[in-house]
């Protein structure tokens, strides 16, 4: 598990491309039969991925957590963006099709991941945050996630938003999680941009065509930077940073948040004309 510490806005504004990528970009998150984890000191969120290919893959514990097991003091959101698969949690099996979500609360001791077919493996994105209370394990399909159509083709941001873990969906201690699917011909996400200093955010991009990329914009609204993101790559977004993007093709992404405020709509909007 890689450990990443916080960076201030002032420090970040002076970073070159390599330094920005080393601190905020998470490449190669999905590896066959492995669990990849990055521990961020922004609200102590862990971003991870697991792609079970030829065997069941267990969620490991890490000495850095100083815990008896991974979810002793944590909660975990899981979204499948690949083929059919399953998650087993303390002996109970949950099947997940593409875009299905599973929440595991504090206290779940043993977690493992499998794919139904190694020729079309499941691809599980993981997001974990510290938890002060235990909430029940719950699965939510994409059809149950109250899909909402937003945006307009004229501004190239027609999209469908699926909300899974939030105050009116799957209950959690602090984790908020969902995903956005951009329609064909649309490329912009989260524009106009916003910030929320009360919580950090992480983005995971998927269904990005092989030869295409997403320009992910970050930084303070008046000091923006960008990262170039490929399929199955993630970005750690600090609380003081915008998190917006534009792709060379349409794509999808998972968004997840943790921090002081649990309300999904808590955000400080930034007018497009004010961005620099």
Automatic annotation (TrEMBL):
Transmembrane intervals: none
Catalytic activity: 5-dehydro-4-deoxy-D-glucuronate = 3-deoxy-D-glycero-2,5-hexodiulosonate
UniProt cofactor(s): Zn(2+)
GO process annotations (BP): D-galacturonate catabolic process; D-glucuronate catabolic process; pectin catabolic process
Pfam families found in the cross-reference section: KduI
Pathway: Glycan metabolism; pectin degradation; 2-dehydro-3-deoxy-D-gluconate from pectin: step 4/5
Keywords: Isomerase, Metal-binding, Zinc
EC number per UniProt: 5.3.1.17
GO MF, any single term: zinc ion binding
Keyword flag Flavoprotein: no
Binding site for Zn(2+): 194, 196, 201, 243
UniProt remark on cofactor binding: Binds 1 zinc ion per subunit.
InterPro entries: KduI (IPR007045), KduI/IolB_isomerase (IPR021120), KduI_N (IPR027449), RmlC-like_jellyroll (IPR014710), RmlC_Cupin_sf (IPR011051)
Summary of the function given for this chain in its UniProt record: Catalyzes the isomerization of 5-dehydro-4-deoxy-D-glucuronate to 3-deoxy-D-glycero-2,5-hexodiulosonate.
Protein name: 4-deoxy-L-threo-5-hexosulose-uronate ketol-isomerase
Annotated organism of origin: Paraflavitalea soli
Gene this protein is translated from: kduI
């Amino acid at each position: 598990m890689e450990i990443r510490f916080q960076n201030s806005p002032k420090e970040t504004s002076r970073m070159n491309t390599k330094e920005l990528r080393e601190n905020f970009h998470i490449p190669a998150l999905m590896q066959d039969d492995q669990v990849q984890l990055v521990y961020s000191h922004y609200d102590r969120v862990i971003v991870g991925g697991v792609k079970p290919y030829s065997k069941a893959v267990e969620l490991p514990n890490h000495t850095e957590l100083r815990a008896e097991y991974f979810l002793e003091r944590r909660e975990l959101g899981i979204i499948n963006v690949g083929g059919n698969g399953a998650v087993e949690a303390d002996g109970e099996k949950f099947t997940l099709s593409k875009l299905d979500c599973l929440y595991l609360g504090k206290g779940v001791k043993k977690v493992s991941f499998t794919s139904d077919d190694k020729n079309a493996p499941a691809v599980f994105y993981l997001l974990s945050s510290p938890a002060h209370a235990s909430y029940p394990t719950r699965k939510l399909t994409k059809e149950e996630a109250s899909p909402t159509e937003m945006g307009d083709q004229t501004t190239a941001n027609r999209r469908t938003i699926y909300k899974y873990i939030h105050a009116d969906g799957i209950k959690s201690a602090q984790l908020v999680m969902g995903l956005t699917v951009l329609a064909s011909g649309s490329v912009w996400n989260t524009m106009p941009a916003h910030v929320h200093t009360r919580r950090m955010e992480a983005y995971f991009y998927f269904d990005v065509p092989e030869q295409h990329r997403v320009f992910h914009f970050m930084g303070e609204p008046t000091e923006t930077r960008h990262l170039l993101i490929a399929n199955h790559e993630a970005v750690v977004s600090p609380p003081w940073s915008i998190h917006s993007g534009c792709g060379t093709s349409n794509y999808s992404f998972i968004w997840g948040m943790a921090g002081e405020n649990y309300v999904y709509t808590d955000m400080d909007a930034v007018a497009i004309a004010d961005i620099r």
